[in-house]
Amino acid sequence: MNLPNKITVSRIFLIPVFMLFLLIDWPFGVIEFYGTELTVSNLIAALIFIIASATDWLDGYYARKLNLITNFGKFLDPLADKLLVTAALIGLVEAGVVAAWMVIVILSREFAVTGIRLVAAADGDVIAASQLAKWKTASQIVAISICLLHNVPFSALSIPLDQISIWIATILTIVSGVDYFLKSKHVLLKSK
């Protein structure tokens, strides 16, 4: 297993650790930021999520730089991303921070796009991620990070950036999903 794939696998292994800190109320105490309380457990969960998200950039960087792009990496990298984002969103619904319908929309798009990619791959087609899809992913990571941090430090300024960012992520998810379906309709309409 090469270095980029090891980094990707480490992202997957960070998911249960992240979830332990997100969902269990550990007795580490509470930090107060200008009237907003943030448990130390949630702060640790947010840091783990941010580090795990950064490994996505890191594994891609090394795969390209060292010319270590493999089929295993092409399969595992997007899977690791989806597992991390899915775990975080479901955890945020459990915590009452994000609306369940938004998470359903986001996850439905991910399942649908993955299905189309599988159909395309079976026919030997590769459908690359568009720039819009990359913005979607970035917006999801930013939104999840802000929600995990309970909108600190923006709550001190009375700016609901957590809710604004999750709305942006949801809208970009819908738009990028429509774009993806339009660009890949040839895969769905192909008959044998």
Could you characterize what this model shows?
- Helix 1 runs antiparallel to helix 2 (40-65).
- By secondary structure, this protein is mainly alpha-helical.
- The chain is 73% helix and 4% strand.
- It has helices at 3-23, 40-65, 71-94, 100-122, 131-148, 161-183, 185-189, and strands at 30-33, 36-39.
- It has 7 helices and 2 strands.
- Strands 1-2 form a two-stranded antiparallel ribbon.
- The mean pLDDT is 90.
- The protein has one domain: Four Helix Bundle (Hemerythrin (Met), subunit A).
- One of its GO terms (molecular function) is CDP-diacylglycerol-glycerol-3-phosphate 3-phosphatidyltransferase activity.
- Belongs to the CDP-alcohol phosphatidyltransferase class-I family.
- It is found in: Cell membrane.
- Its EC number is 2.7.8.5.
- Pathway: Phospholipid metabolism; phosphatidylglycerol biosynthesis; phosphatidylglycerol from CDP-diacylglycerol: step 1/2; Lipid metabolism.
